[in-house]
Amino acid sequence: MRLPSSLAALLLLPLLAFADEFDASPKNARIATVSAWPLSAATPTPLAEVSYNPRSSAGGSYAPIATGDGKVEELVRVGVSEDKGWSIVAPELVGRKDGVKVTLRVDRAGDVWGVEITEDKDAVGAPKVEVFRSEPGAVPALNKPIVLNPDGKVPVPEVEKTFLQKYWWVILAGMVLLVGGGGGSE
Amino acid sequence: MRLLSRLWLPCLILNVVSVLAIFKDDAYHTDWHIPLIGPSIAASTFFHRPNAESRASLIYTLTTRSILAAINPKDGELVWRQPLAESNGTGIACGGNGIIVSATGSAVASFDAANGRLFWENQFSSKIVDLGVTATNAVVVLFEDGAVRLLKEQTGDVAWEWNFVDSTDVPISLHVAESTVTVALSHISKLHLTTLSLATGREVGSPLSVAGHPDIPSTHRALHGDDVLSWTERSGSILKFMPLAPTPAPAFVDIPQDVIETTVVALKDRIAVHYKTGANSWVDIFTVDAGTAVKHYSLQPKAGAHSAISLSTSGDVTYLVWTSTDETLLYDTNRPEILETYPHPQGQSVNATLAISEVVARLDGSWAMRSFVSSWALGFVGDTHLIRNGEIAWTRPESLSSIVASTWVELLDPTTEGIVEDLNVETHTSIGAAYIHRVKRHLNELAEYGPDWVKALPQRIYNAFLSVENTESERTGKWKDFFGFRKFAVVVTAEGGLAAIDVGKNGEVVWKASLVSPPVKFAGISGIYEVRKGTVAIVAADGEYIEYDAFEGNELLRAELGAPALTSALVDTPSETKAVVVILDNGKSVVLPPSPDLGPVYLSIKESSRLVKGLRVTGLSHHPETTWTFVPPASEEITSVVSRPVHDPVASIGRVLGDRSVIYKYLNQHLLVITTINPTLSTASVYILDAVSGAVLHSATHSGVDTSQPIRVGVSENWVVYSYFGDDDVVSTPGGAAKGYHLVVSELYESEFANDRGSLGQAANVSSLTGAGKPYVLSQSYIFPSPIEAFAVSSTKQGITAREILILLPGTAGIYTLPKRIIDPRRPVGREPDNAEKEEGLFRYQPVIEIDPRSIITHERKVLGLKKMETTPAELESTSIVFAYGLDLFGARLAPSMTFDMLGKGFGKIQLVGTVVALAIGAAVVAPMVRRKQINSRWSAM
Q1: Closest residue in chain A to residue B625, using alpha carbons only
Q2: Are B777 and B746 contacting, i.e. CB atoms less than 8 angstroms apart?
Q3: CA B331/CA B302 separation, integer angstroms
Q4: DSSP states of B569-589 as a string?
Q5: Chain A contact present for B719, CB below 8 A
Q6: Per the annotation, which location comes first and is thus the protein's main one (chain B) (predicted)?
Q7: How close A29 gets to chain B, by Cα (Å)?
Q8: Nearest alpha-carbon partner for B137 in B104, B174, B98, B175
Q9: Residues B833, B845: contact at Cβ < 8 Å?
Q10: Which whole number is the average pLDDT over B319-341?
Q11: CA pair distance B450, B493, nearest whole angstrom
């Protein structure tokens, strides 16, 4: 009974690894609709469809949804849906193509829980899309545990002898031969 | 030479050690501690002898803050105190032979009455209703589920257990006699009295029944021993009581409608009933004769809403002590005539709410009387006093144990206060005119103060030499001392009291006032701020804005805001004044004082455990706009929202590295730190936000977190510290984190690289609304050997002095100061620092932070129950002032980089002057000799 299950695991392992890779491929990209919500407006209006890959920070694309001229004079909230977080940006960044970066905050499940639009001079032609995930927190860098040998003592590592320590006698013999060897007849 | 170097080394080490601590002679002088216990519970406060041999008794009390304490009646000092399990302000304490037994919640503990050492403690699953101590120090406990257990005197283990079966019975009380214990249970319209044998726990005889329908919970206070059973019926309109006798016959009295409180006190064969209405109070005395209580007489009502009675027996006389607001009356319970009247001293009235007394008849026919009284005042509940023959011997400020908020008040500078107008003239005219004005002013001052100053000079020099405290530093009242060590902390108590505490003068209370008037209960506080020089403003949670004079304690202004306050903040207005912004429950906002020129102000507010909101308020509009919302990812709950301190000056915008390059700090005044927990995954996340735009600048998720333990956060400058409990066997985290308290530090920089500002480039100004890149965050985590109750950061005037993190340790009851440079995330891990890093002051990373006892600023004192620490700068750059509150009060000075701008007390002024004088004399004597010798040598050379 134990054998088949481990066999199954062995068979599954490459598959799982494959699934992981498959996930990261552009095919598995997801799409989120980013909306803009000017401070005085009653409801948000869709701004763009952003495709992103929840597993990699770059590689998304931005497709604007045309709704009027989209120009506003006041601060604009950006987000994905009303029950999720919104952040505000200056109006001149909304709907711009150059010099703008769209950051999607993505949770563990790959869903977007917040959007930010910021200035980015490197973006030309279309807004850059970036995925922002929570980093794993810092953990204490602990010392390695000491493993005792069967006698319950700290094992003393064997220091390897240096070349000289090992072969001094060969060199010595060589020297003796060199010194002791008679010179050629003159 | 080698010997010399051997001698030098220990000296050098000693030197380093002394540099770490404050001046030794400053300990216990510049810091102060007021140990408090909280308001006493009437039924658990008593005089008791610590042991059978002792002649003097101590005052034992259990408080609503669940602290059991012994107070010395002589001076009011605490002999000992023990924090017990929290139990919502209830609890029972009893005295035995050399022991004190307490019950809070469902735990019973026994302590040595003399020194407070714990003998044993036992935790049960049901709550405790009543408790009694037998003659042999065994403890009988009545539980909420009806069980009665006898706990052994040595170990607290259960000796026997008695369970009644009927679930309709409600346990009322327990009465311990010599060899039996009687349990009173309420059963529909009857009271059952079951007597159990103390030795076996079996029922003795058949249970007695008395007709009665007690109110549960009881609406009166029973402060009697075990010989009497008392209860109220018909929602407190009838008071019944009866001595426990073989044939019980309850006596009863009708309670008049306007009576708000009745208390039954019994001692020996006397029962006293105390009635209180809003306007007056009176006492009925009953005597117990052959098992029935008979009314003896009534005492004339006394005017005044507050009074308390107590009984005391001496010889074969039982005395009644009746403490009213301005006098204490002594009666013999046999006669209705007053034996002695002790008027309280003028201006020291005591609104007694509970009293316990000891009366001794002297040989000359007079009496020695002392009462321990707990008092009530508007906003200040539970101060305790000892009244000895009418004199108030001492007072303990227990009402200050419930401080909930505090703000610092800067005192006035006597040297500039008088010439404020002159200085204003100088800043507002042209340079030339200002210069002439200043010279004129100085000449005037020279003429006015000069002669006095010269006259006082010899005295000042004399004082300075004898190390007498500088006279200037002894300024009192609203005038600040020379170094600015004195500051007022204006505090608010949970009951609505307002008080000013002089933190530089050992926590002296300068004035007290009340924010509420009688029928209204204090709704809590939204914020307290110093809005102008010498003025504090309080925003009450029910929507009231109140201004007080911080030096005198006079009310200056009271305004209704129209709706409960949700949050409030102090903001700077363009006209260089300060204004309080209040967000109201009805969706409106108020700016006080009205400042129409106030530009947009960004506030944040925690709405629920799933939502933090950003709001924008301007001086003109009364409707705050929701700018951003923070909703954490699914199944995460927000636990805390922390922002940078208001006063947080940064002296240097970058950090110079060992190779003379600079990394720039990410400095954002609007840094907001939000922590969340995810109980299902056992993770904790930290989000660093920009509070204007709501953008997440950084976030980190820790796995293997015990989410039932709190996460504490401290923020300052460009860094964040937080702590959580990491565990290796929490649910759904295989592997988990290293078990223990983790202390994480994160520092924010503009860029990863030196001499680079990342996406900010050369920008002089950056707007949160266009967002300019995310900071580069460096983090490091440490194991901290203690739980952490709160963080605070030392605060100095310019921010030049290194910062210290104050950590409140609840376990060892102390405050630990951790220099920020110790937890520097740039410390090299797993290798020794290279030369450049050494030059920066970095040293090798060690995963565990050891608590150095020399950095505990509370020294050997145990500071109990502290909740919050407030810091403020002194006038000297080196020094920060600390004030901590919660239960105890604690104040201290901090000098994180040592007091580099002040001479220590041990500085040898005489030695210095002596050396200079000796050198001058020496030079004067030697100079002619040398000159003569030189001339002589030239002549002789000729």
Answers
A1: A39
A2: yes
A3: 14
A4: EEEE-TTS-EEEEEEETTS-E
A5: no
A6: endoplasmic reticulum
A7: 20
A8: B98
A9: no
A10: 91
A11: 47
Check pLDDT > 50 for residue B86.
yes
Q: Please, what is the average pLDDT of chain B?
A: 88
Residues of B in contact with A138 (CB under 8 A): 700, 744, 746, 779-781, 825
Q: B497-502 and B180-187: which strand pairing?
A: unpaired
The whole-number pLDDT of residue A67 equals 61
DSSP state letter for A134: P
Which residue type does B30 have? Answer: T
Query: pLDDT for A95-143, tens place per residue?
Result: 788 888 899 999 988 899 999 998 888 888 788 888 999 989 999 988 8
B829 part of contact set with chain A, CB < 8 Å: yes
Sheet holding B719-726, edge to edge: B712-716, B719-726, B740-749, B776-784
Q: Is the ipTM of this complex over 0.90?
A: no
Predicted model pTM: 0.87
In this structure, are strands B259-267 and B221-222 parallel, antiparallel, or unpaired? parallel
Residue with tokens 């924090």: B83
Nearest to B631 among A83, A89, A92 (CB): A83
Distances (CA, A) of B935 to B221, B922, B939: 104, 20, 6
Average pLDDT of span B33-60: 93
Residue pLDDT, tens place only, B665-697: 999 989 999 999 999 888 999 999 999 999 999
* Location of structure tokens 């906002």: B589
| Tokens representing residue B395 in the block | 């007072």
Q: Are B175 and B132 in contact (CB under 8 A)?
A: yes
Statement: residue A186 has pLDDT above 80: no
Helices (H), B71-110: none
For residue B520, the SS3 value is coil
Please give the Cα distance from A138 to A28 (Å, whole number).
30
Cross-chain Cβ contact B696/A132 below 8 Å: yes
B760 inside 8 A of chain A by CB: no
